[in-house]
Amino acid sequence: MTATIVVGGFWGDEGKGKIIAHIAHSDRPKIIARGGVGPNAGHTVEFNGKKYGVRMLPSGFVYRDAKLLVGAGVLVNPQVFLDEVKTLGVEDRARVDFRCAIIEQKHVEADRSSEHLSGKIGSTGSGCGPANADRVMRVAKLAKEVPELQPFLTDVPLEVNEAIDSGEFVLIEGTQGFALSLYYGTYPYVTSKDTSASQMAADVGVGPTKIEDVVVVFKTFPTRVGAGPFPTEMSQEEAEKLGIVEYGTVTGRRRRVGWWDGELARYSAMVNGATQIAITGIDRLDKECFGVREWEKLTPKAKEFVERVEDDTGVPVTLISTGPSLEQIIDLRSEKL
């Protein structure tokens, strides 16, 4: 078997958690490994009528038969990690790579007191930027130096590659979105590292030859939290008329809302090497699509939008989310792949 990577195609908040949870329950991975920056990105998953917001653990935790690993490239706030492990009851299957850099209180304070980061850039204030700076300077503390994390330490690349080599399926989660990439995003209004699929593979120690699929998740109406360019942004009044009022999982800040951006979607699909596209929020384009689980039952307006996405990206749309719950999804992978 090989691995599948799921990443966001716009500015984050695309609904990756829902897509990851669906793939996990459908394809039954042995391991769900998380790449990305750190606890500055939140994932919201709705399962069995309950909402979960996670910042450190993979959002695929709702699939109870998978081991949950945090890759070496991810910054770890020990308190956030330990609190989530306890809250979600996953002590037996949550592990952190011993090489993860640690976010300390000084990093949080530096993040929040920086006029550039908290003022101009709109940082979440979780300490990730300053912690990544310390990692680059080779002075950051690592997970293996934190006593509280000792029971959870592992070698993530070793576990992931052994699982793949033994024929098991591995699911790799990205965080945030492509347009927040340090390299490819709307610099300087970006996060503190790359957020593309290639980076997620590197974060968990998987070589490119072991990646079979890259699923890029796009929102029907893209959103963005914080400052920075947003070419297709609509007014708050327009968003409210559409019934789109959202707040960031980590910051609680109101998300800016925009119209579909085919140009950005095309570029994102290209750099990420997308083999599949997942679309979320189709029910906001047309309320009659809410909860629909079959392609034939989508409205003509929704079908036309999906076809437009495929034209814009040159990649098949295989997953279409029609609501927040796990079962509210159309899975076309067996038909299109």
Structural features, described:
With 337 residues, the chain is α/β, with parallel strands linked by helices. It has helices at 16-27, 78-88, 105-113, 115-121, 128-136, 156-165, 197-204, 236-241, 262-272, 282-285, 300-313, 333-336, and strands at 3-8, 31-34, 43-47, 50-54, 67-70, 94-97, 153-154, 170-173, 211-219, 223-224, 256-257, 276-280, 317-321, 329-331. The strands form three sheets. A ten-stranded mixed β-sheet has the order 7-6-5-2-8-1-9-12-13-14, sandwiched between helices. Strands 3-4 form a two-stranded antiparallel ribbon. The longest helix has 14 residues, at 300-313. It is globular and about 55 Å long. The two termini are 16 Å apart. The mean pLDDT is 93.
Summarize the helices and strands and which ones pair or pack.
Blueprint lengths: L2 E6 L7 H12 L3 E4 L8 E5 L2 E5 L12 E4 L7 H11 L5 E4 L7 H9 L1 H7 L6 H9 L16 E2 L1 H10 L4 E4 L23 H8 L6 E9 L3 E2 L11 H6 L14 E2 L4 H11 L3 E5 L1 H4 L14 H14 L3 E5 L7 E3 L1 H4 L1
Parallel strand pairs: 1-8, 1-9, 2-5, 2-8, 5-6, 6-7, 9-12, 12-13
Antiparallel strand pairs: 3-4, 10-11, 13-14
Helix pairs in contact: 3-5, 9-11
Outline of the structure:
The chain contains 12 helices and 14 strands. 52% of the residues are buried. The protein has 337 residues and is of the alpha/beta class.
What would the keywords be for this entry?
337 residues, alpha/beta, two-stranded antiparallel ribbon, 12 helices, 31% helix, 18% strand, globular
What pattern of helices and strands is seen along the backbone?
A: EHEEEEHEHHHEHEHEEHEHEHHEEH
Q: Determine the structural class based on helices, strands and strand pairing.
A: alpha/beta
How helical, in percent, are the residues? 25-40%
Oligomerization: single chain
Q: Output the radius of gyration.
A: 19 Å
Please state the overall shape, judged from the principal axes of the Cα atoms: globular
Main sheet properties = 10 strands, mixed
- The total strand number stands at 14
Low-pLDDT stretches: none
Mean pLDDT: 93
Give me the number of helical elements: 12
* Percent of residues in β-strands: 15-25%
How far the N terminus sits from the C terminus, by CA atoms, comes to: 16 Å
Strand line-up across the major sheet: 7-6-5-2-8-1-9-12-13-14
